[in-house]
Amino acid sequence: MPSKVVLLAALLAVGLSAVWGVDYVNNWDGPVDFECPDAESIGYLYSIHSNTAEDRRWKIACRKPPSGAEVRKCEWTPNYVNQNDRTLLYMCPANYVISGVKSVHSNRDEDRRYKFKCCKDSNYVTTSCTRSDWLNNWDGALDFTVANGRVLTGWFSVHDNSKEDRRHKFITCQLKDQNS
């Protein structure tokens, strides 16, 4: 009987891993260059910190937005939206959702700069936006799933030079069909 329980647990773990795509999108000190497939937005973020590398590795996964929206009109921020060792506060333009992330690491500053890809469906609007609490402690793991019925629209983080790490909060909104 225990073997059936172990097998079930293993199958569930593999199934959940397949849903969220468990591979890291960057190596220590390496760039992040991640885009969701066409018409999808980021639905999951996971990150760990290394005190040796003084950096974070990221796992990112996408999903289709709620309500049948197809976010296909996209644009990248032309420049990095933060400076090393400075606060990052980025919101996609109104009615856009985050569908991609790029970042580069500086060994001198032991920090990252970020760019974002924002996409929208012209028939949908973002409403009822909220900001999460801190999702990680200094040097700790971050594990965030965008709640059902919501989309990721913004990213907030602060850097601490003594910890050489960032704490993160995310902004999510509901996505509603403006014709209904």
TrEMBL record:
Coiled-coil regions listed in the entry: none
Signal peptide: 1-21
Record-linked InterPro entries: Dermatopontin
Keywords for the protein's UniProt record, in alphabetical order: Disulfide bond, Secreted, Signal
Compartments where located: Secreted
Entry's Gene Ontology cellular component terms: extracellular matrix; extracellular space
Domain of life: Eukaryota
GO terms, biological process: collagen fibril organization
Keyword check for Signal: yes
Principal location: secreted
PANTHER family the record matches: DERMATOPONTIN-LIKE ISOFORM X1, DERMATOPONTIN-RELATED
Similarity comment: Belongs to the dermatopontin family.
Record protein name field: Dermatopontin
